[in-house]
């Protein structure tokens, strides 16, 4: 079965307790279960990870590039300022979809900039945890 990585950046381990009015009541464990379930339906093996550490996220993106593994990536706050992440994504050798639970374009101005969008295959934002499901479907249908 084809493997897909689902990488999550800082503070996403705190889903469920973190600003539930913005990110909903579901936990990171719920997100993992949703991704695994969706992967099973689509015939994909889904490897879900979360880190608060920019260097670790960069090293995971290198691993994806070296293995030509498609990625669903929620870069969280790194979206808005991490050129290191952007440079790592630019090395990708398979589709990479940027996802967001909320719709950053409808929030504070600093969230309107994504420094990674231009090097991603595409972006899905604003559908809650369903953003991940839609991204996995897009990968299954196009990768
Ligand atoms: C987020 C949006 C970002 O602006 C924020 O920093 C996050 C989560 C989202 O999934 O909606 O941590 O990426």
Average pLDDT, all residues: 97
Order of helix and strand elements from N to C terminus: EHHEHEHEEH
Largest sheet: 5 strands, parallel
CA-based gyration radius: 14 Å
Number of helices: 5
Which strand order do you get reading across the main beta sheet? 2-1-3-4-5
For CATH, the homologous superfamily is named as Dehydroquinase, class II
Report how far the terminal alpha carbons are from each other.
13 Å
CATH class: Alpha Beta
The counted number of beta strands is 5
State the domain count.
1
> In percent, how much strand structure appears in the residues?
15-25%
Organism: Sphaerisporangium melleum
Pathway: Metabolic intermediate biosynthesis; chorismate biosynthesis; chorismate from D-erythrose 4-phosphate and phosphoenolpyruvate: step 3/7
Catalytic activity: 3-dehydroquinate = 3-dehydroshikimate + H2O
Subunit structure: Homododecamer.
Kindly describe this structure.
This protein has one domain (2-142): Rossmann fold. The chain has helices at residues 20-23, 28-42, 54-67, 83-89, 130-142, and strands spanning 2-8, 44-50, 71-74, 96-100, 122-125. The chain starts with a strand and ends with a helix. It is α/β, with parallel strands linked by helices and 143 residues long. Strands 2-1-3-4-5 form a five-stranded parallel β-sheet, with helices on both faces. The longest helix has 15 residues, at 28-42. Helix 3 packs parallel to helix 4. The chain is globular and about 35 Å long. The chain binds 1,3,4-trihydroxy-5-OXO-cyclohexanecarboxylic acid. Residues 11, 74, 76-77, 79, 100-102, 104, 111 line the site of 1,3,4-trihydroxy-5-OXO-cyclohexanecarboxylic acid (DQA).
């Amino acid at each position: 079965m084809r493997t897909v990585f689902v990488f999550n950046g800082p503070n996403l381990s705190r889903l469920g307790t973190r600003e539930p009015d913005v990110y909903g009541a579901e936990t990171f464990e719920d997100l993992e279960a949703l991704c695994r379930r969706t992967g099973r339906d689509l015939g994909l093996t889904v490897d879900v990870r979360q880190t608060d550490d920019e260097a670790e996220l960069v090293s995971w993106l290198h691993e994806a590039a070296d293995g030509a593994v498609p990625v669903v990536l929620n870069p969280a706050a790194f979206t808005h300022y991490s050129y290191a992440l952007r440079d790592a994504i630019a090395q990708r050798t398979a589709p990479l979809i940027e996802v967001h639970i909320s719709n950053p374009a409808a929030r504070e101005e600093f969230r309107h900039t994504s420094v990674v969008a231009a090097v991603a295959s595409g972006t899905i934002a604003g559908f809650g945890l369903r953003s991940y499901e839609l991204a996995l479907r897009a990968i299954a249908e196009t990768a």
